[in-house]
Amino acid sequence: MIETASSGTAAPHYRQPLLGTPFHARSRALAQVDQYVAWSGYSTVDVYTTVEQEYFAIRNAATVYDITPMTKYRIAGRDAVAYLDRLVTRDVARLRTGRLGYCLWCNDDGELVDDGTLFRLGESEFRLCAAMRQIDWLEASAIGFDVSIEEVTERIAALSLQGPVSCAILKAAGLGEVATLPPFAIGRYDLDGIELTISRSGFTGDLGYEIWMDPSAAEAVWDRLFDVGRSRGLRAIGSRALDLARIEAGYLSPWIDFVPAEHAIRVGRARSPLELGLERFVDFDKGHFTGRRALLEERRRGPRSCLVGLDVEGNKPARAALLYADARCRREIGAVTSAVWSPTCKRNIAIARVDAPFSALGTSLWAEIYLNRELVWERRITRARVVERTFFAPERRRATPPADF
Amino acid sequence: MSARRSTSAHDAIVVGAGHNGLVAACYLARAGLDVLVLERNPYIGGAAVSRSLYEGFTYSNCSYVCSLLRPQIIRTLELPKFGLQIIPYEGGCTMMRDGGHLALYDNHDALRREIARHSRRDAEAYERYSRDMIRQCQFIKPLLLREPPDPTSFRPRDLAELAYLGRRFHGLGERRMYDTLRFWTMSAADMLDEYFESEIVKAHLAGSSIIGTALGPRSPGTAYVLLHHYMGDIDDTVGAWGFARGGMGAITQALAASLRASGGAIESEAPVEQILVRNGRTRGVALQDGREILAPVVLSNLDVRRTFLKAMDPGDLPPEFLDGVRRFKIRGSSGKLNIALDGMPTFPAIPAGSPCIRGDLHVTDTIEMMERAYDDWKNGRWSRAPYIDMLIPSQIDPTMAPQGKHYMSVFVQYCPYELAEGPWTDERRKAFGDTVIETIARQSPDFKRLILHAEVRTPWDIENEVGLTEGNIFQGELTLDQLLFNRPLPGWAQYRTPVRGVYLCGSSAHPGGGVMGAPGANAARAVLRDLGRKRAA
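Structure tokens for the assembled complex are given below, as produced in the milestone run.
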């Protein structure tokens, strides 16, 4: 029995360092292949059945993914907007109540500390969902602001419901009003007395919602979704299937596509939003924010490298491949950070860091791919082309109200 | 001097069979030199020894944990082949006066949750702290096995080394260059204040900043001592600590075996009386038994004070140099208890089943307590509430004590070399030991009942038995005025001395103390370069 954050009964942390989420009992029952992975101090499912089946449920039907371990902060107080505007690179004042936005925050050198989603729950109440724990950074940034910052990770259970049938499942569960929720909007709903916050957001690039609740309601909500969803193809998915989908959507993963600046040990390893191709999320006109001066300077002289999308010839994923300007591999110009064969696009796609001169769309590069064929290694020098990093973006993700399938 | 018998000549003599002396001897022997190591004690090892002072028990009775020993040395000298095994231990713990505790665990999540019990913010600040320590270690570590450049010299070699140092320093980036200068000069307490809010977290981490040092946690320079302790690694895990299987003597035994295998020789119970000098260069050593052993090269594993003030004729040395040697800071500040226990003592503050009990245990729960313990030392007495670094290696290493019984190593900070009340006597030594035992007993009700035997060592004892001046475990304070090109003396940081053929190979030389072996390896390289020979392997 794994301890859940709320139970507080089972083994102490030095015997069992990882917690179970409030969905643990439910997810465990469906996890057929016993593949778990540590995520921010929680034991979560990596694979339930097969990665392929789980992935296709995201793109074809609907999936439930336990996102409770995501670090969540409640940020509130008179200066909350001013504080957040100083912290993140986008214009928080323009984020309306009841909306959420993707945002980035940097250190003084303009290097990315982390990215996440910012929910405006009230005039001066926000929730920041991030990949990393960072109360240390958030509090250090709060000096001089009348704002309270509180980590609420354990107090909020959350499920990500993603896929073309996700809205239909919510409607069938008795949450019909969700259909009117446009992308990046947040609504509050009642499910037989259970208070739910539902946002139209996700990490798959598809139609989808994130459902936020009190941990005590976790199992009831899970059960309700499966009661109505099972016949509609609803599956629980693990981190591996999600990773496939997020690469297709062109979303970045910390530690994989970039090193969070405050964790980088070596000089030059941290990346700026400009280098990561996220300039559209940086608002230079909104006034001062942490890292602005460095980013302005970087914009003036141009970033050293860029994180781009690659379309790789052949069907062998270019995992961890070094990239060259020439087929003879004499000039190294970057490396692949994420790579998969996209089952939906039927393309061999990758996210890669390349030196700035090689980042223009259409640039032709060479990837050094190693293949293990029954313990015999083959080296393939494969042509790759720089393309848009969003590989899959179906129209259905934006439709309001969404179609039923 | 009466008629002396001159015996066989060697290519090089090493005075003192401590770990650095043996490392130097090994490198020289592997380069083809005929090397003889002379040790005054009946056993070899200096301060890296395993001694059996009570039936069935093995004590690491001086140094007691291993982390800094350079992997390159272990590998080149094939120490594993000669029996050396380093076993990492997990974590550590500070027991608090109110019955609470703070433990450190290897598992990242267990550690975060443990620190978060005291402060959630500190749990995350710990990552920033570790990152900064690793950054600084990555800057310093490559310098350990290099000869520090003389910044005033224009020799091509010095310029090249200075350029290397400069390049590495610049490679840190602007912000971290500032950090480095601060790390090297600030106090551990100030440094920890920049990261942590919880007293217990700071107290636990500050321990390494005072071990072996005649400074308090609030003294400038102690942040570097902390870093020096953090710098070690085991199998690439930075900051990891371990036991040498069989006690610290296993390290010097493996070195001795490696030395013999490459043709070197060791003679114990052969105290050197003097390093012989003629016309500004050495010709060998004179032993206390009247023999003279000739060699054109003599490496001294003794500390700089002992080498030049006791083992050489002052007339052979320039007065200014001698003056510097006399003023070299090498103050005794620590003692040691080695205890044979009839069973495993219980520590109610440590939760049952926590692996931290197999790590380093402490009872000082505030930096303030450490500073007050230092005040006692300044006043010429041992600390009434000393900082202790206590380990029970027999929980991990089955060779240290009979089954079911345990060996406890207790390092004690602070204990002066000279007491204000008069010289060390058996009575005063016992009173010092009792202070330590009572300190432990406050956290362990059954501890006293389990004691079968206790060896109590004051700095005075350590000087007399091991030969370290004032019993200073680092052969000299690790403060910036005595580090890098200032160690041991400005202008004499490259292992050479004013007497041609005489070299320093102990921890008085760069990069300083700890069972590291780097001074020995670097000194051997300096000798071989002067001889125009290539270093082995």
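Residues 474 and 514 of chain B are 6 Å apart (CA to CA). Residues 127-231 of chain B form one domain. Further analysis is deferred to the final report.
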